[in-house]
Structure formats: C-alpha cells, structure tokens
C-alpha cells in the first residue's frame, strides 16, 4: 500500500510539473479550441461589429446622418491694392510720370459652411459668408467641388440661398419638426472651423428666442454652448437624431474663438426665408414706415404709462402707411390684430409677417386713451447689395 501511494504521489508531482512548464512556455497549447458560430439568416453572429451596441452617450448615428448634408463654402473677391499717396503728388509725378502703372489687383478669400436643403442643389448659408464675394465654390463632404450660383439673399435675417448643378440627387438634410426644440436638448454643430475640415462639436440648447443682440434686424436666435468658431457660419445645428434645428450664425467672443456662447437661426425662420427666395428671388415683408424705440421706466413715467410694455413711436414717415392710418409720434403701440406687443422687436416681427396690401388693426395708447386704427400694410424696402 505504501508503495502504491508513493507511485501515485510521484505521478501527480510529474503531471503538475509538466502543466507548469507548458503554462510558462507554451500557454497556447492549453487554450480551448475556438467555437464556430453559425449565423442564422437575417441575424448577425454575436460579437460581430454590427451587433455591438453604440456606446452610451454616443451621437455617432446623428453625426453620420447629418455630415453628408453639410458643405464647405469658399469665396473670393477681386480687390485693388491701396494706392500710394506719392502717386498723387505733383512733384513725384513730374519725375516719374505714369511709369509705375495702374494699381495691381489682388483677390481676397473667405470661408464658411452651408447646408444642402434639397436634393436638387439648393444650399442654405449665412448672408455674411457670401455678401462680398464675386466667386463662390462649394465643396461637398465627399470632396467634389462645384461653382455655386447665388439665388438670393436676405441681410435682415443674415440668410442666403445658393444653388449648385451636380447632375445627381444630393444628400439633403432632414428638417426638424416645428417647435421641437427645448432648453437643455443636446445639439451638434457641424461646419468647417478655421478651414481645418469638417468638424462636429456637441453642446446643449442654452436658451431660445434670444434677441437685441445687434446681429441682424430680425432676431430670434437659439443660444448654444456647442463650440462654434469662424468658418462654422452657415453650418448645421442638428438635434440628437441628426435633424436640422438651426443655421449657425454668430458667436459671442472677445478673442475670436468660442467662449461657449454661440447663436443659430431657428430652422423655421430659415426655411420660410429659403422658400420665399427660391419662389420669388427675394423676401417680402410688411412695413408701415415708423421709427420705434424701447419704453424705459423713465419714459413710462413721463407718458403716464402703467408699465414698459409696447413700442414707442418715435417718428412717422410722411405719406407712409402709418401716417395715412393716423399713427402719430408719441403713440405707444400695444397690439396688432389683438396680439400684444411686449417690445419693439416683437412689433417688427408682427408687422413683417403681415402681407403687403392687407389692412390690419393697430391698438395705440395716446394721452391716456386707447385708439384702434386701421392701417394698410406696405412692402418693406429691400436693402441694396453692398458694393
């Protein structure tokens, strides 16, 4: 029995030693055989890339959906170099005459972004991206480049519409439903910042209906902390599903770079402007010919007003729609077609939305009395194109 136990102990010791040696020098010999996975038709084998779920918090699908619809816009303009003051000096010209020749010309370039709004080549961008250009080139996400034609522009909302002839359907962006955006929603800003190439940044909607910023005449901006930098102008602001919610327009910055305060034009504004430009080549708005200003607490007290709501009529154009309708300087406009006027910005928006030629009821406060005046709406003058 003792001999049998000794033999067993020696065998176990030798087996353990062999396993130790194999684990040290040839561990692959001890690895289990690979398991073959047979995929059922219509299903991906477990562990394949297509079956791996997206990382928590990832917005890759939204970016993938929107990226092909965002383009780079390159502009150029021919400019003459500054003329030397010596060329206008009579003594200098006496000795050198016109031998220095005419002033040489040079081209300045700019860059921005745009969004493909329809598959037939209409592109939305900012007016300030293209307003000074005499040549516009659009580069698609896949690298193709096309010369772009300016369809129309609207400086008062800082929007413009371009068109390219690609010969094939283009990947148009999906417009988000009206009034679908709320403060706190995640948004992605897509564009070409500083010309480095297509870039996606993420943030949230910080505020809605921002106005009184001095960026454009009609302001109703989305504020976001998604990084927006020079070159992003005209690019897309999309929601977590990749649908367009705004056109990136401006930043608040003291250094030229992003400080976490960016502004985008809501898609409802942008789509309305685009549709009018495509249909008629311009944007038609109502106008009554008045100069307005905010009502401060001091003005409210001097005019005997109960609060600071409304728009103070500071001036009336002689012979304009307001003048013909009986509106006078010093009147306080409090409502248009029963819609309250909290401030001058809202008054501008309501009047602009009225069709020229229509008659509207204006409620004004004059010397303690309220008067309802019918005013026939005129057409808002079109701003001339900068030279």
TrEMBL record:
Recorded superkingdom: Bacteria
GO biological process terms, semicolon-separated: proteolysis
Residue span(s) of domain PDZ: 277-341
Keyword tags: Hydrolase, Periplasm, Protease, Repeat, Serine protease, Signal
SMART domains assigned to the protein according to its UniProt record, in alphabetical order: PDZ
Record GO terms (molecular function): serine-type endopeptidase activity
One GO term describing the cellular component: periplasmic space
Active-site annotation: 128, 158, 233
Pfam families linked: PDZ_6, Trypsin_2
Annotated binding of substrate, by residue: 128, 158, 231-233
Subcellular location(s) of the protein: Periplasm
PANTHER family: PEPTIDASE S12, PROTEASE DO-LIKE 8, CHLOROPLASTIC
Family: Belongs to the peptidase S1C family.
Stated name of the protein: Do family serine endopeptidase
Organism expressing this protein natively: Denitromonas iodatirespirans
């Amino acid at each position: 029995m003792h001999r049998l136990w000794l033999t067993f102990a020696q065998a176990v010791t030798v087996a353990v030693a062999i396993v130790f040696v194999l684990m040290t020098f040839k561990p692959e010999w001890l690895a289990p055989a690979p398991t073959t996975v047979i995929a059922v038709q219509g299903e991906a084998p477990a562990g394949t890339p297509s079956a791996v779920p997206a990382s928590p918090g990832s917005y890759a699908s939204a970016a993938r959906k929107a990226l092909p619809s965002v383009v780079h816009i390159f502009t150029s303009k021919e400019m003459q170099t500054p003329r030397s003051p010596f060329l206008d000096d009579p003594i200098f010209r006496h000795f050198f005459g016109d031998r220095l020749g005419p002033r040489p010309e040079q081209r300045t370039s700019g860059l921005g972004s745009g969004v493909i709004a329809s598959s037939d080549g209409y592109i939305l961008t900012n007016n300030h991206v293209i307003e000074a250009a005499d040549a516009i080139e659009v580069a698609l996400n896949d690298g193709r480049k096309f010369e772009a034609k300016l369809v129309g522009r609207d400086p008062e909302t800082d929007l413009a519409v371009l068109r390219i002839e690609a010969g094939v359907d283009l990947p148009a962006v999906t417009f988000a439903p009206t009034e679908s955006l709320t403060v706190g929603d995640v948004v992605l800003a897509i564009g070409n910042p500083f010309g480095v190439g297509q870039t996606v940044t993420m943030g949230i909607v910080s505020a809605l209906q921002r106005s009184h910023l001095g960026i454009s005449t009609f302001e109703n901006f989305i504020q976001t902390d998604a990084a927006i930098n020079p070159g992003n102008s005209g690019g897309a602001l999309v929601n977590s599903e990749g649908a367009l919610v705004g056109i990136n327009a401006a930043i608040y910055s003291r250094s030229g770079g992003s400080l976490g305060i960016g502004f985008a034009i809501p898609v409802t504004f942008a789509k309305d402007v685009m549709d009018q430009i495509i249909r008629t080549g311009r944007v038609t708005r109502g106008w009554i010919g008045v100069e307005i200003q905010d009502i401060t607490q001091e003005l409210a007290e001097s005019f005997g007003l109960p609060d600071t709501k409304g728009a103070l009529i500071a001036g009336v154009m002689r012979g304009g729609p307001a003048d013909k309708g009986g509106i006078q300087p010093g009147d306080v406009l409090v409502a248009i077609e029963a819609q309250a006027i909290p401030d001058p910005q809202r008054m501008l928006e309501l009047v602009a939305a009225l069709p020229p030629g229509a008659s509207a009821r204006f409620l004004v406060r004059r010397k303690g009395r309220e008067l309802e005046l019918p005013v026939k709406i005129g057409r808002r003058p079109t701003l001339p194109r900068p030279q």
